[in-house]
Design brief:
By secondary structure, the protein is α/β, with parallel strands linked by helices. It folds into two domains: 2-217, YjeF N-terminal domain (Rossmann fold, 3-Layer(aba) Sandwich), CATH 3.40.50; 223-478, Ribokinase (UDP-N-acetylmuramoyl-L-alanine:D-glutamate ligase, 3-Layer(aba) Sandwich). Helix content is 39%, strand content 15%. It has 17 helices and 18 strands. It has helices at 7-18, 25-42, 58-72, 88-96, 131-140, 188-191, 223-229, 239-242, 255-265, 279-288, 311-320, 355-362, 366-371, 373-384, 419-432, 437-456, 463-478, and strands at 2-5, 49-54, 76-81, 100-103, 115-119, 152-156, 179-183, 186-187, 201-205, 218-220, 244-248, 272-275, 300-303, 325-327, 349-351, 387-390, 396-398, 404-406. The chain has an eleven-stranded mixed beta sheet, with helices on both faces. Strand 13 (300-303), helix 11 and strand 14 form a beta-alpha-beta unit. Helix 3 (58-72) runs parallel beside helix 4 (88-96) and helix 15 packs across helix 17. The longest helix is centred in the C-terminal third of the chain and has 20 residues, at 437-456. The chain starts with a strand and ends with a helix. 53% of the residues are buried. The model has no long low-confidence stretch (mean pLDDT 97). It binds ligand NPW, adenosine-5'-diphosphate (ADP) and potassium ion. The site of adenosine-5'-diphosphate (ADP) has 16 residues, from helix 15. Pfam families: Carb_kinase, YjeF_N.
């Protein structure tokens, strides 16, 4: 499990740990991890040139101490001090190791360095960059019109300027890192979009904080977590004990969505798939998936993918069964908040909106949701009193109690029509096996992304390729 903590949680844990250690020991641990990560990126020390952008806090202190270690190894290190007052011990250490320093006077370098280390601000930073910091960054790590750069940027703890606890980006400038070296635990911005791509690859340095940290509200499941949650048929299993998933999706207008939702449901994780809906779709479903049967009892429903104006009726019929359900696409529009069966009892559900659909549910603009995904996913989960899977490059699975699982699997090629239908069917199948909605949504989105990666191999895919690859991903997880 990759856990992401907030600034306040990190500061509390740091205070508890620091009280057991010599002064400065934590910063030394952080700086050493940072320096070795930079050395790895440089691929050597002699002849390599590193510039440190240094702000007024401990983040700049980390950069200066790491710079001292790099300078002792033979790297040419220069610190650009962006504040009158920087970490004094760090600066003394850099000077003693032979590193140079200068203030920022608006003039850039004669020759670009190999790596720029962003020690402008860390978890103590306010969003955005001051003009001097933005200008120094642009001078030492210039970008062309396409955003390409000849210099690699390593962020200390977080890319300066991003909102650490929310994953939001500031209105103004922020650092865009190739590598972020973080300490003790991940921060929310490392996982949550739109900030997470600004972090580049994220490298976690263990500084001993673990025992002092509380359980994280924001986590990302890893392969071993998913493997532990995966339903496996017992020796005495039969198709009904494994769970039956029903699909009410597709329409005369969008028959393909019905087929793709069935393809996701028929990944082999549940014991049986039923299709209920448009007769012309049913014929095509039977042709493509001979194992799929018609009306009967189910342990879960997937409703709405590619539905037409009858999606509301399909949703009501599914809710009346009082089994767990996935509510996708057109069916989302017919949903009342909170999600309840007709008799008022709560029904375990997973809502699977993309940003546009979530915006409609909450009566806001799509751009608002995209800018503040964590907050809006949580708000929807609370309002509907159910699990919400907000789909995107890093999908968020929000529980009404505030916990969030971030999905980090899946290539950009997964942004292809019908991929969401496959996901809805897959999560429905996992619900049928008995996983609770939070687990089913998180495991389903992880498998979906991993199947897309497997199918893509770096190239283009269509939605049915994703469904076809789920079995292979499950097989490798179980191996
Ligand atoms: N916690 C841990 O476990 C460990 C933490 N460690 C390290 O400590 C870091 C946190 O350090 P920190 O608390 O000193 O704050 P930090 O992020 O350097 O910045 C605050 C300073 O910046 C300023 N400032 C604010 N916004 C600004 C802006 N937009 N643009 C420009 N300036 C801005 C503000 O000054 P002001 O402008 O308010 O005068 C303030 O003084 C953490 O990220 C990690 O790297 C490791 O060493 C060891 C383990
Ligand atoms: N840039 C991206 N990178 C990775 N995955 C993405 C990206 N964009 C979308 N996805 C995933 O692709 C799927 C798209 O689903 P959706 O928006 O419902 O499309 P459709 O309605 O065509 O099926 C979701 O699982 C989403 O998480
Ligand atoms: K930083």
């Amino acid at each position: 499990m990759r856990a992401a903590h907030t600034e306040a949680q990190v500061r509390d844990a740091e205070a508890a740990l620091a009280s057991t250690l010599a002064d400065g020991a934590l910063m030394q641990r952080a700086a050493t991890g940072l320096a070795y990560a930079v050395l790895g990126l440089l691929g050597g020390a002699y002849g390599r040139r590193v510039v440190l952008l240094v702000g007024s806090g401990a983040n700049g202190g980390d950069a200066l101490h790491a710079g001292a270690l790099l300078a002792r190894r033979g790297v040419a290190v220069e610190a650009v001090l962006l504040s009158e007052a920087v970490h004094a011990e760090g600066l003394a250490a850099l000077r003693a190791a032979g590193g140079r320093d200068r203030g920022w006077d608006g003039t850039g370098p004669r020759r670009l360095p190999d790596v720029v280390v962003d020690g402008i601000v860390g978890i103590g930073g306010r969003p955005g960059l001051k003009p001097d910091a933005a200008a120094a960054l642009a001078a030492y790590a210039p970008e062309d019109d396409t955003g390409a750069r000849p210099v690699q940027v390593v962020a200390v703890d977080v890319p300066s300027g991003v909102e650490v606890d929310t994953g939001r980006l500031p209105d103004g400038a922020h650092v865009r890192a190739d590598l972020t070296v973080t300490f003790g635990t991940h921060k929310v911005a490392h996982l949550v979009d739109p900030a997470s791509p600004a972090c580049g690859a994220v490298h976690l340095v263990d500084i001993g904080l673990g025992p002092h940290l509380p359980p994280a509200d924001v986590v990302a499941l890893q392969a071993d977590d998913v493997a532990a949650l995966l339903p496996r048929p017992g020796r005495a299993a039969h198709k009904y004990t494994r769970g039956v998933v029903g699909v009410r999706a597709g329409s005369g207008r969008y028959p393909g969505a019905g087929l793709l939702a069935v393809a996701g449901a028929a990944s082999g994780l549940a014991g049986m798939v039923r299709y209920v809906g448009d007769p012309t779709v049913l014929d095509r479903v039977r042709e493509a998936h001979p194992e799929v049967v018609g009306v009967g009892r189910v342990q879960s429903w997937t409703v709405g993918s590619g539905g037409d104006n009858r999606a509301g009726a399909a949703l009501r019929a599914a809710l009346a069964d009082e089994v767990p359900l996935v509510v996708d696409a057109e069916a989302l529009r017919h949903l009342d908040a909170p999600v309840r069966a007709e008799d008022g009892s709560s029904v375990p559900a997973v809502l699977t909106p993309h940003a546009g659909e979530l915006a409609s549910l909450l009566g806001v603009e799509r751009a608002d949701v995209e800018a503040d995904q964590l907050a809006y996913a949580r708000r929807a989960a609370q309002r509907y009193d159910t699990v919400v899977l907000l789909k995107g490059p890093h999908s968020l699975v929000a529980h009404p109690d505030g916990r969030v699982r971030v999905n980090t699997t899946g290539p950009s090629w997964l942004a292809t029509a019908g991929a969401g239908d496959v996901l809805a069917g897959l999560v429905g199948a996992l619900l049928a096996t008995g996983l609770d909605p939070f687990d089913a949504a998180a495991v389903g989105s992880w498998l979906h992304g991993a199947a897309a990666t497997y199918a893509s191999q770096g190239g283009p895919i269509v939605a049915s390729d994703v469904a076809d690859a789920v079995g292979e991903v499950v097989r490798s997880l179980l191996a």
